[in-house]
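[recover] target loaded
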């Protein structure tokens, strides 16, 4: 969880200090600020899928510190500033889940948060060439075992269920997408006997 002051007002020539407090497990390895372009909202500028790292444009003003500090404010300092925290969590590199048709499988995610998150399962068919094209998996029954855990039960897996599954956790602070789980579905084996 990353928290900062929402709005900071200052007069020209004055100094400001804005802390960025980060609560994460594992603790952050890197906390930094950047001055976003005025035509890009904060949510658009930092919409990252799980495992992606923030990319800072070399021409963009940035500070490698959890405290944004500007001495002698100038008019070009006005605008949106974004605090970014990164920790060791990387895509899990899970091995594919392989299931035969008509068998059941359960996908599970654990995601603590304050406030407690809601969960939404998404799916991308293996045949889809657009990596950003995710479809909600509403036809299956999502079950919450606890407030910070969610599971997706696929009661009867079919060939069309083959693909990559993601769990989105969201609350009033923000949202996060899990690393993909590769579900490979193989058909029934028919013998020639």
């Amino acid at each position: 969880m990353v928290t900062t002051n929402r709005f900071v007002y200052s007069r020209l020539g004055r100094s400001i200090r804005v802390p960025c407090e980060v609560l994460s497990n594992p603790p952050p390895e890197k906390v930094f600020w950047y001055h976003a372009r005025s035509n890009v909202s904060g949510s658009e500028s930092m919409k990252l899928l799980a495992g992606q790292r923030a990319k800072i444009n070399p021409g963009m003003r940035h500070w490698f510190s959890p405290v944004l500090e500007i001495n002698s404010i100038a008019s070009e300092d006005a605008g949106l500033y974004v605090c970014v925290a990164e920790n060791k969590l990387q895509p899990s590199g899970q091995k594919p889940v392989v299931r035969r048709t008509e068998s059941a499988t359960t996908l599970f995610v654990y995601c603590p948060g304050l406030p407690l998150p809601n969960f939404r399962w998404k799916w991308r068919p293996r045949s889809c060439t657009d990596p950003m094209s995710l479809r909600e998996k509403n036809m299956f029954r999502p079950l919450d075992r606890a407030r910070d855990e969610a599971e997706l039960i696929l009661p009867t897996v079919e060939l069309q269920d083959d693909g990559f599954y993601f769990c989105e956790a969201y609350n009033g602070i923000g949202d996060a997408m899990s690393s993909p789980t590769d579900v490979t579905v193989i058909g029934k084996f028919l013998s020639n006997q």
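[recover] notes: Residues 38-54, 90-94 have pLDDT under 50 and may be disordered.
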